[in-house]
Amino acid sequence: MDNKKVQTLDGEIMLVQEVPCQVKLNDHQWTVAFSYHKEPVSLKICKEDALPECFIRTIIQWAVEEYLEERRFEEICQSMN
User: Fold this and answer.
1) pLDDT per residue over 9-57, tens digit each?
2) At 77, phi and psi to the nearest 5?
3) Which terminal residue of the chain, N or C, has fewer Cβ atoms less than 10 Å from its own Cβ?
4) Structural domain containing residue 20
5) How far apart are CA 51 and CA 57, in angstroms?
6) SS3 sequence of 2-32
């Protein structure tokens, strides 16, 4: 795998469901950081050399979408109580 190419993801901003997300490489672990209702959120994605860049991008998108859907569902359920 071309390490230089994947490391270009570090610090990149991705937009997922209109939420700006920053991709970070911390201690050989890919993470994505964003805010939800002004609260910081950080999700671990995978180890540094585990996957090609295109897979990491897809997993980041899916992870953020899943997080947002779960939180929104919880909020709907709470509002119905």
Assistant:
1) 889 999 999 999 999 999 999 999 999 999 999 999 999 999 998 899 9
2) -60, -40
3) C
4) 3-80
5) 10
6) CHHHHHCCCCCEEEECCEEEEEEEECCEEEE
Write the single-letter amino acid at 57. R
- 21: tokens are 């997300």
The most confident of the ranges 5-9, 51-55, 71-75 is 71-75
Domain total in the chain: 1
C-beta neighbour count of 16 within 10 angstroms: 17
- Of 50, 35, 43, whose CA–CA distance to 66 is shortest? 43
Other Cβ atoms within 10 Å of 56 Cβ, number: 19
Contact 61, 30 (CB under 8 A): no
